[in-house]
Amino acid sequence: MEKEVKNEILDAINTFATGVDKRFDAVDKRFDIIESRLDDLTEEVRQIKTDIKSIRERLDEIEEKLEGSIRMSKDDSDAISGDVIDLRRRVEFLENQVREMQAS
Fold it and tell me: For 98, phi and psi rounded to 5 degrees?
């Protein structure tokens, strides 16, 4: 009888231990899935950071080109303004000469 009780207790402990092992296995599988997802997310974040860095570099290049274009436009405008002033002086000079010729 005593042996039977011991066997029943051992069987109960064995059954309990098996149940606990299965639960731990299930928890381990869940953690593995979570770890895999975190690894995927980490890689995606790295890729996003790389993309953002690339975009920033391209924006810097565009900004430099725009600044160069603005400088060129300003220089062109300044040169054109100088030409317009020179042309106005010439026209005034020629108009004065025409008036003088008409007066004489």
Answer: -60, -45
Rg (alpha carbons) of the chain, rounded to whole number: 44
Angle at 17 between CA 14 and CA 22, to 5 degrees: 125
Name the amino acid, one letter, at 43. E
Average pLDDT of the segment spanning 59-83: 84
pLDDT at 62 (0 to 100): 94
Burial profile 44-62: b = 16 or more Cβ within 10 angstroms, e = fewer: eeeeeeeeeeeeeeeeeee
The residue with tokens 């290049």 is: 61
